[in-house]
Amino acid sequence: MGKGDRRTRRGKIYRSSYGNARPHVDVVTGAAVAKPASAKAATKKAAPRKKA
């Protein structure tokens, strides 16, 4: 545990990453910022054509 541990807050700060141990915080309100929902949730790709 410490700087090299990616699961701890100190490890996240050392590696400049975010996660459950170090959530993003909005500077103005102090509330955690949620990622926006994906707009392409119900999009379905067409099946590739079969060669005859």
Automatic annotation (TrEMBL):
InterPro entries: Ribosomal_bTHX, Ribosomal_bTHX/bTHXc/bTHXm. The keyword Ribosomal protein applies. It comes from the Bacteria. Keywords: Ribonucleoprotein, Ribosomal protein. Belongs to the bacterial ribosomal protein bTHX family. This is 30S ribosomal protein THX. One of its GO terms (cellular component) is ribonucleoprotein complex. It comes from Luteibacter anthropi. It holds the Pfam family Thx.
